Amino acid sequence: NAGVMQNPRHLVRRRGQEARLRCSPMKGHSHVYWYRQLPEEGLKFMVYLQKENIIDESGMPKERFSAEFPKEGPSILRIQQVVRGDSAAYFCASSPPGQATYNEQFFGPGTRLTVL
Amino acid sequence: GQQVMQIPQYQHVQEGEDFTTYCNSSTTLSNIQWYKQRPGGHPVFLIQLVKSGEVKKQKRLTFQFGEAKKNSSLHITATQTTDVGTYFCAGPAYSGAGSYQLTFGKGTKLSVIP
Question: Any CB–CB contact under 8 A between A107 and chain B?
Fold first, then answer.
């Protein structure tokens, strides 16, 4: 049973370009979360999705950031017109169906985004 | 909003010494989770505590949840070099948008000197 998969593992973009980060949850998991981690910092919640639905995007900047989890295919976190401050590690996590606050989360290996 | 604080931020120990990290929440938690992140790696779930005063052990690791469910600790006995990494606690907090989301502490980074 494969774990949570994320790609790419490393992504370099120039200021103003778009970054697309992909996440495939573990098989059977219906909850997907995206987090951002700055160096020497904890993880900051960005968005929580279920299939075809954004449940909670309160941690995501309102401009330039968007997320989706389509019926088919991976979840995608999209950052438009990237700026240097977007450089960070972005982790996706998934959890099984059920009460989300009591479920452990399984993290993917992350995408390290560097904006030049 | 809810804050989850961890101390210390860094800890250097000699191999074989014990290590403890403390986690404090500004609000009562329904549960608390602990994760470990190796250098360059991703967070890996260690344990969840739910009951007031709960104590759980995993080999050399002992986890406690306070009576008031606002604090927690992780204690490692006789550290080994394989224990190196950052240990995070996380508790659910109301996001303000209709759901509870995990709020992570900043973590305690453990270095073990062989």
Answer: yes
* Cα separations in angstroms, A24 against A21, A41, A50, A74, B76: 10, 25, 12, 5, 34
**A105 touches B at CB < 8 Å:** yes
Closest partner residue to A58 among B30, B43, B96, by Cβ? B96
Q: Which of A55, A101, A104, A106 has the highest number of chain B CBs within 10 A, making it the mutation to test binding with B?
A: A101
**Chain B closest-CA separation from residue A90 CA (Å):** 10
Average pLDDT across chain A, whole number = 93
Question: Residues A14-24: pLDDT tens digits?
Answer: 999 999 999 99
